[in-house]
Specification:
globular; 122 residues; mainly beta; four-stranded antiparallel beta sheet; seven-stranded mixed beta sheet
């Protein structure tokens, strides 16, 4: 069982930046960030595999950047030009399915962090 611990959420004004981090306790292949607002489905934001191949949801392309440090078992999400629509609970997610396709599909991930809140004021 892999434990994921997120950090870095907070409040920012529109146009500002935040950086989220996630530390994994064991081996992971796909890692990613999902977000959820009350009453809506959890949405895939960015995923990355161990070779650094990234996938982003269209709404964050060009504004968010995901990166991994394999040696440290960490995942980061740099979020720039934030808008109120980015406000959500952000979750770190992972799987240990080596060689799998790392998509934004929630069901492909079975390890989840507790979430970190991102608030963006207009």
């Amino acid at each position: 069982q892999v434990q994921l611990v997120e950090s870095g959420g907070g409040s920012v004004q529109a146009g500002g930046s935040l950086r989220l981090s996630c530390v994994a306790s064991g081996y992971t292949y796909c890692m990613g960030w999902f977000r959820q607002v009350p009453g809506k489905e959890r949405e895939g934001v960015a995923v990355i595999d161990r070779d650094g191949r990234e996938t982003y949801v269209a709404s964050v392309k060009g504004r968010f950047t995901s990166s991994r440090d394999i040696a440290k078992n960490t995942l980061s999400l740099q979020m720039d030009s934030l808008t109120p629509e980015d406000a959500a609970m952000y979750y770190c997610a992972a799987n240990d399915n080596s060689g799998s396709w790392c998509s934004l599909y929630r069901a492909r991930f079975w390890y989840w962090g507790q979430g970190t809140q991102v608030t963006v004021s207009s």
